[in-house]
Design goal:
The chain is an alpha/beta fold. The chain contains 13 helices and 15 strands. Helix 2 packs across helix 10 (about 285-290) and helix 3 runs parallel beside helix 10 (about 285-290).
């Protein structure tokens, strides 16, 4: 392989081909813009909200009690049991804590370990577009090709995004190995409904695909929308790895504790990779979360109420400002169409927005893989304190 001739150190060194072109992301750029301009940062999905006080006390207590060394490779046993109980309670799925539950250093490590463990060079991974930006990166590290399937934009006021079943069918080839499903979906806030999941499951069974379902927003679903895991559909448990984490649910994104549930042979493949990525991490956090997960429904209900009010405040404000919001049934984010402000380029819009309105957002193009994807969508975050969202709204309305 011939590497890029660029000499980065004066010694002829250049990065490996698999990371060339992976410079600083738009997230880094927009966060720096927020810092430099003092703008309200509705860009990254970093919660500005409180965590459960009992969870924080338990983590501190575990640290002081000496739980600061490596946990077992598969994770703290009590947390694996708590995850298995959670899956049984919410979805009626039985997983053995020993062998079918693996604790990871966040959901992103889980996704990386899954694709590295299941894909060979030249394999194809299908993901719905737009998608979390780690998906194409880790597929690239595995030597796999990520194939985007566009989510269709719904029509009319208050519309969201919908599955294009024909596009999904057309994307499957003899090289397709994995379907990477994110529901509730980042960055659109879509929740795949029962009918859509049934279509996806049927295609996966027909073509013998393994499903990796990223469900980190599973507890943050609004307005009567219902999150269902595809693993619970007929014939799907044995071909599905379900991934979630504590970060979004408990506002502890810096703890980086996630988990994978699935049949033992698939989990073993993930664990064989994970042991050489981080081995294991977060012992005191794992101990604290083992206790917290049993009461997650009560905590998540309160958090959903806060986030739903923020979402409504932001969506109504975007509409007042002439930026058409799309319906978000889950998660942290609202998509908006910026064309009414005379823009069709989301990147330029977001670079100018801090100076024009004192607000930072993220161009949705950062999540798109298709060259023909719409450039006029921008993502705004509402996982902030209500006063921050209200301030951003007033700035946006005032900038018309």
């Amino acid at each position: 392989m011939t590497r890029n001739a660029e000499d980065l150190t004066g010694t002829g060194w250049s990065p490996a081909a698999r990371v060339q072109g992976m410079g600083a992301s738009v997230f880094t750029e927009m966060t720096e813009l927020a810092r430099r301009t003092g703008a309200v940062n509705l860009g990254q999905g970093v919660p500005e909200l409180d965590s459960p006080a009992s969870l924080l006390r338990d983590a501190a207590g575990a640290m002081l009690a000496g739980a600061n060394q490596y946990p077992p490779a598969y994770g703290f046993p009590a947390l694996r049991e708590a995850v298995a109980d959670h899956q049984r309670r919410r979805y009626g799925l039985e997983y053995a804590p020993e062998g079918e539950v693996l604790v990871t250093t966040g959901a992103t490590e889980a996704i990386a370990a899954v694709l590295l463990g299941l894909c060979d060079p030249g394999d194809e991974v299908i993901a719905f577009d737009p998608c979390y930006d780690a998906y194409p990166a880790v597929a690239r590290f595995a030597g796999a090709r990520l194939v985007p399937v566009a989510l269709a934009e719904g029509q009319g006021e208050g519309a969201g995004f919908v599955l294009d079943a024909d596009a999904l069918r057309a994307a499957v080839t003899g090289r397709t190995r994995v379907l990477l499903l994110n529901t509730p979906h980042n960055p659109t806030g879509k929740v795949f409904d029962e009918d859509e999941l049934a279509v996806i499951a049927g295609i996966c069974r027909e073509h013998d695909l393994t499903v990796v379902t990223d469900e980190v927003y599973e507890h943050l679903v609004y307005d009567g929308a219902v999150h269902r895991t595809i693993a619970a559909l007929p014939g799907m448990r044995e071909r599905t790895l379900a991934i979630s984490s504590a970060g979004k649910t408990f506002n502890v994104t810096g703890w980086k504790v996630g988990w994978v549930c699935g049949p033992a042979h698939l989990v073993r493949a993930v664990a064989s990779v994970k042991q050489f990525l981080t081995y294991a991490s977060g012992t005191p956090y794992q101990e604290a979360l083992a206790r917290a997960l049993g009461g997650v429904e009560e905590w998540a209900g309160e958090l959903r109420g806060i986030l739903r009010r923020n979402r409504d405040l932001l969506s109504e404000g975007l509409a007042r400002a002439g930026l058409r919001p799309y319906r978000a049934d889950a998660g942290y984010f609202v998509q908006a169409d910026i064309r009414a402000w005379g823009h069709a380029d989301g990147v330029r819009f977001c670079r100018e927005l801090p100076l024009r309105a004192g607000v930072v957002a993220i161009p949705t193009s950062a999540f798109h893989l298709r060259p023909d994807a719409p450039s006029y969508l921008v993502r705004f975050s509402f996982c902030r304190r209500e006063k921050s969202v209200a301030e951003a709204v007033e700035k946006l309305v005032g900038a018309i």
